[in-house]
Amino acid sequence: MASRAPSGRLRRWARPALGLLLPVGLALAWEIVVRLGLSSGRLVPPPTRLFATIVELARSGELARHIIATLTRVVAGFGLGVVAGTVLGAVSGYWGLARRLLDPTVQALRAIPSIAWVPLFILWLGIFETSKIALIAVGVFFPVYLGVMGAILSVDRKIVEVGRTFRLSGPEMIRRILLPAVLPAYVVALRVGLGLGWMFVVAAEFMGASEGLGYLLIDGQQLGKPAQILAAIVIFAILGKTTDWLIEIATAPLLRWQDAFGRPGGAA
Amino acid sequence: MLVLDRLSKIYPNGVHALERFSAEIRLGEIVAVIGGSGCGKSTLLRAIAGLDRATSGTVTLGDIAISAPHEKIGIIFQEPRLLPWLSVADNIGFGLSDLPANVRREKVATALARVGLADKARAWPRELSGGQAQRVAIARALVPQPEVLLLDEPFSALDAFTRRDLQDHLLDLWADMRPTLVLVTHDVDEAVVLADRVLVMRPRPGRLFEEIQINLARPRDRHSPLFDNFKRRVLTALDRSLDRNVPDAAAKSNAGEAMWW
């Protein structure tokens, strides 16, 4: 957010740079502290050691294996959660009777912290992939369900009336009025859902996995390798940001019409 | 001929919005419906549009009974109600989706030029001013060439200058195809500028109070004494319509010359 507006070129480069100042500065300072021997850096490894760990993991092929395992779980769980959340959310939003039947139950289930399902999922689905994917799907389901239902319920009645005056049929009304009207809120719901998916994959991998970034975390803890833990955390951050950005890129052309706050700046 | 026969509307909450409203509106005529708030003007318009069904009574256009939106009836609301995700051109072409793309494009281009917004074809609705947006709404309603165009206080959200501009523009567009216009308004000036006939309604329940013919040649001079006379007549009728002591029977003094004048 550029509250004060300096001249154009400065603003364009200065703003991202400003955001990097703090993390890069801290990393640099820590590196110097360790190099000067003021700290051993054993519990908090300096950036160079962290980087070396990542390179080493990548070179051995370990890193790719763990990333693929985690990514597969997130994609599968996210996919299932999105499909279920979209279908049930759409039904509840569109059809009053279904909403009265379904929504109270869903809301009650939502009140349960999703991690509480873990023991039950393990009993029901075993300790391998299925229970992990189910947990992620549950985490993704609720924000998507709520987002879709809320978006449909809040479609402007006046816009729907425009559709009626042009005598749109039911399916046409959905395609030409409801879907575009709901899309912005749906994208937000997808992004929130994805964020929760990344959160739950860690929980799922904590409950006994032999591969995956969550396994790297646990393994690093048990073997006393803080560099490995930090490496996994950094990779989580990169993957999470990248997948979120993919959704943003994929939907941007559909949302160009939106009157967004801070759009002209570009970097917002 | 658009025939409204004893239209009544009672809302589920018991409000008696409209009672036995009858009128016959000739093809190509411009009729303004005016009245205080709560007199059922908008209810009437929505019933003609087929958006809400009257509790009793009928709307007939030619030999078609209207009970749902019909292709021969277009409507313009107080707000432009453009679809924000469509470009200006796609908004105007919204009602033409049955036509082949090239025909549609041609009609949209003609309409855009006609409302003076040819350079805005690819703009988003949010980039338009209030007056421009309402022009697009008018073009969208007129492009399917309706026989009847209903307008629900279409210019009331605009500033005085833009409002005058659009009133003149509407008359200009009307002259192209001469659709029947039924205009709901609370602006006496607007009613007298546009209409061949002004229907004054009275509230609780909403019903017809008086009809006033505006026998003035177009284009009308807003500053002529004759124009002022008609304005005063409509204003007086409005005042009387709100006076509970004046009986409804006054509604029958419909024709051009009111005897008390």
Compact description:
Chain A has 268 residues and is an all-alpha fold. Chain A is 76% helix and 0% strand. Chain B is built from seven helices and ten strands.
**Which fold does the CATH topology of chain A refer to?**
MetI-like fold
The H-and-E topology of chain B, N to C, reads as: EEEHEEEHHHEHEHEEH
Q: Using the 3D structure, state the CATH architecture of chain B.
A: 3-Layer(aba) Sandwich
Instruction: Please count the beta strands of chain A (DSSP E, at least 2 residues each).
Output: 0
Enumerate the strands of the largest sheet of chain B in spatial order, edge to edge or round the barrel: 6-7-8-3-9-10
User: Quick one: CATH class of chain A?
Assistant: Mainly Alpha
Largest interface by Cβ-Cβ < 8 Å: A-B, 17 and 21 residues
- Main sheet of chain B, how many strands, which sense, barrel? 6 strands, mixed
Major beta sheet of chain A, specifics?
A: none
Describe the structure using short key phrases.
heterodimer, A: mainly alpha, MetI-like fold, 10 helices, 76% helix, disordered C terminus, B: 261 residues, alpha/beta, Rossmann fold, six-stranded mixed beta sheet, four-stranded antiparallel beta sheet, 10 strands, 23% strand
